[in-house]
């Protein structure tokens, strides 16, 4: 019975993660194209996606490399963008932190925006899920996402400039993150943080090396934290 419920959770994760396939394919292909245009070999491009497996950080690093930014700036910017993974991990720990070490290690590697957003939403909606069902569900969410990221990165790197500009693959980048963020905007703190970050990113657009995005993210987190603190004070 337990085995059946775990399998059902895994299949549910696949179903909930499947819609992201529509944007992951062009998103990954775009990275493959841009990476080879920036001078990376096909092997280096694919290795980038396999090792880092974090679209936002990869695009940030790639653009800074193309602008010949100092190596320290490239590394610091990519790391700053990926710091959200630390927050994702902290949020997931109460749900899957009790899983065996190997499963936790694999889950850490596959913790991406899509797997986190879908899993946390499911865990909050179904608090009665067992730890085994939760980890199975998590792995289900990445099954249709991560393999496509690798495959279409390779396709983009191999095809390169042969893809017509009219395909406009870059549409997938904002759509992907809108699909992730929108369902999570459930409180005033969430909405305040998102609006602040969006406003600041536009205001700081001209800051060199795309550092304005990092500053906008920090500003959004500060505003969100302040709104949350004010809300807790008002209800206590």
Automatic annotation (TrEMBL):
GO biological process, alphabetically ordered: L-valine transmembrane transport
Coiled-coil residues: none
Predominant location: membrane
Record's keyword annotation contains Acetylation: no
GO cellular component: plasma membrane
Family (UniProt): Belongs to the AzlC family.
PANTHER family, sorted: INNER MEMBRANE PROTEIN YGAZ
Name this protein carries in UniProt: Inner membrane protein YgaZ
Organism, as annotated: Planktotalea frisia
Organism ancestry: Bacteria, Pseudomonadati, Pseudomonadota, Alphaproteobacteria, Rhodobacterales
